[in-house]
Amino acid sequence: MMAQSRRALFVSYKAKNILNKNKRADHWFWTRYSAYPYTGCQHGCEFCYCRERKYSPYDDPDDFAYVIRAKENAPGLLRQSLGRVPRDLLFTGDYQAAEGKFQLSRRMLEVCYDLSFPVFILTRSPLVLRDLELLQAIEKRARAVVAFSIISTPDSLHYQHVRAMERLAPLPERRYAAMEKLAAAGILTGTCFMPVLPGLCDDDSNVDSVVRWTATHGGQFILAGSLTLSDQQRLHYMNVLAARHPEMVGLYQSLYGTGDYSPGPAVWLKTAQRVREMCEQHGIHDRMPRPIMRDDPRALNRRIVEALAGQVYAMELAGAERSGVWAYRKAAWAIEDLEEDVASTYRFMGLQGLASIENVGTALAPYVEDLIHSLSGR
Asked: What domain count does the chain have?
């Protein structure tokens, strides 16, 4: 277990690269790129997946919360990197306490503003409000989204236990207050309800509370995700659990087996279905609306992809056959990869043109046709 008296060590260094690139935008945060200014996090949440070996340079997982590596040349590297790639949504920003000292997240946002790149920020800190005016400027020029990681509320049954797991992260009340200010300023915002900790925040009352607090503070969406456990992070979390909640060790062993990365789909579906039910009651989304740049010549394509991805998620929640789910997913990828406006293809070639698109075919061409008609006026 970690020594609570240990002080944070800040290491400033020059990184060799900053930008991570994917072939296309994901169907979760809608980001195609990511760039992070720090390694390690002073919040030190016990459940954070960033302790896994593939994300962490530390041999000792405890170092994750105490050795903070700041990429001093991150803004310059980002400017060089973004100048060589197509504009698309960038996952960036890190508002842990180190940001007050180094201000790298702000300087990276300034680069995004200069180059008209849209941004997505996921944070546990209201410090993001420091950059509100800059985010508003990015929103006008491209798009800006801020989501808050929140997994429990003060009126939840296990709130104090969850708070202990979050260690130095700011109070959820402060995060919700920041969300309300961002929403009032015209920034798309919502809650990333992740990871959902079995036995601690997966009960219906907590799910209902997280959704309700989000809706009443201007949030427009909830994204829920399960806890993942791997290698050194798995050992770290299970040790924490054994020390604080030994009565739950058996539950986790049954859910995660001897090496399972995540709980079984049946466990996850129960939570996801409850989130959807509550979001419908409160008039918000259980998916993040896709932020599409206002000058995007393929805006309709992006909206169709968003609709197809939404259908994929709905089919997964309904327990649809895997083959059917993958058909819609691959169709979404095909539309995303198109270099031309899908409406032009339809206008000149009709259903035959849509059917000629790889992984759309005759089976899904009528569905895409309906989307073209319903989404063209947006």
From this structure: 2
